[in-house]
């Protein structure tokens, strides 16, 4: 930063705090720049809490500068209408700023700005036309009707922050988006003729969005919200694009203009069909039989011990235990020597019991969920809205608070049930080998018979 720049910042702060000068910030900066024509180095300048409406920062090096005020402050710092034509704005942070109708136009053919942060800013009608941005973040910003037309956007993010943030009506016409991520409302946005490569729209609101003549190469449209006015007409490419079958069913009768070829190039996900392929039909009975086979020895033990206890009338505390303690011993000892003195020491079979118990509980959850989704589809005649990556609502522990909210519960259950399946196969293989290695006599004679 040039040695004279702190003096300008101090002058702006003094005039703003004093309020008697009467000059606007735009006039003070214009006058100062007229007197310091050769000064362009504003690197790492701190403009916090300064009202800079309509100020012209064109052709300055603002790398590492900071604008705005702390996010928890009430109100926005007014930087509306500011101009950043051909300014170097690498690593600039705009926090809690009013940037309505601000102009950012360093052309990406000459220079790409990187690592910008827009946090809780109002960027309504802001112009980013023909700009190059890399690794930049728009968090909790109002981008309504902003424009990124013909821009190059690489590894940028547009996300909500604490429920704030939208890009409704934003113009990305002709823009190139590579490895970007969007998770906010894009309702009414324009992506016509845009090139989208590995861009993630998961969870976004894409109602009334227009993707006409765009490219969606290896993009992700999972969990998005669309309607009959979402348009995918005349797409140039959809190779490797991920989308949910439920999303396709929410488009109009013509799938929003998606051709058969477009849909063939896509990777269409149907988590309901995935669950049904593994937990419905014959597989449902297979899982239920396995669960019954797992539970049967413990139920049989309880029934047997209850029957024995029913016909013994002289039981005392020294020579008997409760059914609860008996089943606990049986489980801890893996069914062997459960009535011995050191029953409280867990055995290796107990470790297997815990693993298989978890596996059976998880697949019981999945069996219930699969049957619930099947019934819902049969009764309503409509596809069920379900995805393994849906955020869980959690348990309500007290008003306004939920435990586990946002956890991808069903994805976790499905993944660990599959791991449990392979672990169960290992367990079955070990027991089968142990069973098959049992010694048997070649000739059954009284000498080797043990009653």
Write down how many β-strands occur, each being a DSSP E stretch of 2 or more residues. 22
User: How many domains, as an integer?
Assistant: 2
Helix/sheet category: alpha/beta
Instruction: List the total number of helices.
Output: 9
CATH architecture of the largest domain: 3 Solenoid
Q: Helical residue percent?
A: 25-40%
As an assembly, this protein is: single chain
CATH class of the largest domain: Mainly Beta
Average pLDDT confidence is 85
Which radius of gyration do the C-alpha atoms yield?
33 Å
Largest sheet: 7 strands, parallel
Poorly predicted tracts of residues: none
CATH topology of the largest domain: Pectate Lyase C-like
Overall body shape: elongated
| Lateral strand order in the biggest sheet | 1-2-5-9-11-13-15
Distance between the termini: 97 Å
Beta fraction: 5-15%
Verbal overview:
This protein is an alpha/beta fold and 451 residues long. 32% of the residues lie in helices and 14% in strands. The chain is built from 9 helices and 22 strands. It has helices spanning 5-18, 25-35, 245-249, 260-265, 271-279, 282-310, 323-332, 348-380, 409-436, and strands spanning 46-48, 66-68, 77-78, 83-84, 93-95, 97-98, 103-104, 113-114, 117-119, 132-134, 137-139, 152-154, 157-159, 176-178, 181-183, 195-197, 215-217, 220-221, 242-244, 267-269, 395-398, 401-403. The strands form 6 sheets. Strands 1-2-5-9-11-13-15 form a 7-stranded parallel sheet, with no helix packed on it. Strands 8-10-12-14-16-17 form a 6-stranded parallel sheet, with no helix packed on it. Helix 6 crosses helix 7. The relative contact order is 0.05. The model has no long low-confidence stretch (mean pLDDT 85).
